[in-house]
UniProtKB/TrEMBL annotation:
<dbReference type="Pfam" id="PF01504">
    <property type="entry name" value="PIP5K"/>
</dbReference>
<keyword id="KW-0067">ATP-binding</keyword>
<dbReference type="InterPro" id="IPR023610">
    <property type="entry name" value="PInositol-4/5-P-5/4-kinase"/>
</dbReference>
<dbReference type="GO" id="GO:0016308">
    <property type="term" value="F:1-phosphatidylinositol-4-phosphate 5-kinase activity"/>
</dbReference>
<feature type="region of interest" description="Disordered">
    <location>
        <begin position="294"/>
        <end position="334"/>
    </location>
</feature>
<feature type="domain" description="PIPK">
    <location>
        <begin position="9"/>
        <end position="413"/>
    </location>
</feature>
<keyword id="KW-0547">Nucleotide-binding</keyword>
<dbReference type="InterPro" id="IPR027484">
    <property type="entry name" value="PInositol-4-P-5-kinase_N"/>
</dbReference>
<keyword id="KW-0808">Transferase</keyword>
<keyword id="KW-0418">Kinase</keyword>
<dbReference type="GO" id="GO:0046854">
    <property type="term" value="P:phosphatidylinositol phosphate biosynthetic process"/>
</dbReference>
<keyword id="KW-0597">Phosphoprotein</keyword>
<dbReference type="InterPro" id="IPR027483">
    <property type="entry name" value="PInositol-4-P-4/5-kinase_C_sf"/>
</dbReference>
<dbReference type="InterPro" id="IPR002498">
    <property type="entry name" value="PInositol-4-P-4/5-kinase_core"/>
</dbReference>
<dbReference type="GO" id="GO:0005524">
    <property type="term" value="F:ATP binding"/>
</dbReference>
<protein>
    <recommendedName>
        <fullName>1-phosphatidylinositol-4-phosphate 5-kinase</fullName>
        <ecNumber>2.7.1.68</ecNumber>
    </recommendedName>
</protein>
<dbReference type="GO" id="GO:0005886">
    <property type="term" value="C:plasma membrane"/>
</dbReference>
Length: 425
């Protein structure tokens, strides 16, 4: 997979799906958002709200261009996650996702079959997920919430919403909305997806030299002698957070996750323009009044809010305008300043052994965290284990996965400007 967006115009195969996703999010999220915040109850974790859209529309749902059904899962929990823990401005969230910005599609689907979409401003990613992952995320949602609460700097994917659309012939598509780890305003010069597993974990070097956006893997990292160059202070923070996060994933019996590492070299800066000429996006032709309006404290939607919402709902036709990349933000978004690992230009700047800054910024996060070690993975483990070392393949039980992940990352982190290279055994 490469971080390149493809335009989704009206003739695109996924246009209807996209339209339905965004319409559903807009209505579902603004509905919850229009109410006064209240403390969560246990039922909020299992709650799901259904919406039926059709071309006629009704009291609850505005008319839409297509017939479809939409489900919003645990809306109050995700609202609390977004506002209390991830420091997102509610109106910004909706606007980024559904107002001025429609999405671009990320590369081609990987072996999991998931599709990725970027919001226009590049802050959010929509990932379609398998039904099993969806069910799993719902199951662990209370634990995930607790973990995020007690670990404000967690490196785990930030989940902002969990939804499903059902198309008329019954096809169900589940998706999550999460943070894009990479910034809109910095070229990423190298990308790695690290699991701590070495079997089959290599992107062919001859292809990599032609493609600066290739997602490289563990063996590329080792063979190129890469290190996370962090002095004692930053190293301690990172390793401690990774330890807690992997401990959590172990308790959830999750495996197959990775640390996604984007490297920005400040010397090189943005001169290669790796983002701009490739991020094709399109813009819907809608303007709706849901800007930073205060939400009423009365328990009901404030009438002006409701009116704005109705206006918003009427005008919902995204229209492709093509390759407009000049509108990418020039700076980092506000929410990232709250987090240690996103404190430097949205990332984590390298330091030397004296904790002095160096010329590299890392963009880091633990991604793909919804795969439990199920019987399927166990089978893969046995099968691949026949051909290769059972402990080096990626499918190992969760406890083994977590400790291997953590020891790999500990081994490849050291102060910049000297020291030894990591050598795999
Ligand atoms: P598989 O199960 O085959 O590994 P997947 O479809 O579950 O794939 P992920 O592993 O979640 O996909 O992500 C695939 C790639 O997409 C990552 O290697 C990374 O390049 C990009 N990506 C995923 N999540 C993010 C994110 N939050 N921010 C930036 N890039 C991301
Ligand atoms: Ca993955
Ligand atoms: Ca996956």
């Amino acid at each position: 997979k490469v971080l390149v967006g493809n335009l989704i115009g009206e003739d695109h195969v996924n246009y209807v799906l996209m339209y339905n996703m965004l319409t559903g999010i807009r209505i579902g999220v603004s509905r919850c958002q229009a109410k006064v915040k209240r403390p969560l109850t246990p039922d909020d974790y299992t709650a799901r709200h259904k919406f039926s859209f059709d071309i006629v529309g009704n009291e609850l749902t505005p008319s839409a261009r297509y017939d479809f059904k939409f489900k919003d899962y645990a809306p109050w929990v995700f609202r609390e996650l977004r506002e209390e823990h991830f420091h997102l401005d509610p109106a910004d969230y909706l606007l980024s996702l559904t107002s001025k910005y429609i999405l671009s599609e990320l590369g081609s689907p990987g072996k999991s079959g998931s599709f990725f979409y970027f919001s226009r401003d590049y802050r959010f990613i929509i990932k379609t997920i398998h039904h099993n992952e969806h069910a799993f995320l719902r199951k662990i949602l209370p634990d995930y919430h607790r973990h995020v609460k007690t670990n404000p700097h967690t490196l785990l994917s930030r989940f902002y919403g969990l939804h499903r659309v059902k198309l008329p012939r019954g096809r169900k598509i589940h998706f999550v909305i999460m943070n894009n780890l990479f910034p809109p305003h910095r070229d990423i010069h190298e990308t790695y997806d690290l699991k701590g597993s070495t079997v089959g974990r290599e992107y062919p070097e001859e292809k990599a030299s032609k493609n600066p956006r290739a997602v490289l893997k563990d063996l590329n990292w080792i063979n190129r002698g890469r290190q996370l160059e962090l002095g004692p202070e930053k190293r301690a923070y990172l390793i401690e957070q990774l330890r807690r996060d992997s401990e959590f994933l172990k308790e959830m019996h999750v495996m197959d996750y990775s640390l996604l590492v984007g490297i920005h070299n400040m010397q090189r800066g943005n001169r290669d323009n790796l983002r701009r000429n490739t991020l094709k996006i399109f813009q819907p032709d809608i303007h709706y009044g849901l800007r930073r309006r205060k939400i009423s404290q009365s328990g009901k939607a404030d009438p002006s809010e409701a009116m704005a919402m109705r206006r918003a709902m009427r005008s919902s036709d995204p229209k492709a305008i093509g390759n407009d990349s000049t509108a990418l933000p020039e700076s980092d978004s506000e929410d990232r300043r709250h987090f240690i690992f996103h404190q430097d230009e949205g990332g984590y700047r390298a330091t030397d052994e004296a904790n002095e800054p160096m010329d590299t910024i890392y963009y880091l996060g633990v991604i793909d965290i919804c795969t439990p070690y199920t019987s399927l993975k166990r089978l893969e483990h046995l099968w691949k284990g026949l051909k290769a070392d059972r402990h080096k393949i990626s499918a190992v039980p969760a406890a083994e996965y977590a400790s291997r992940f953590l020891s790999f990352l500990t081994a490849v982190t050291r102060g910049g400007g000297g020291g030894q290279r990591f050598k795999p055994e």
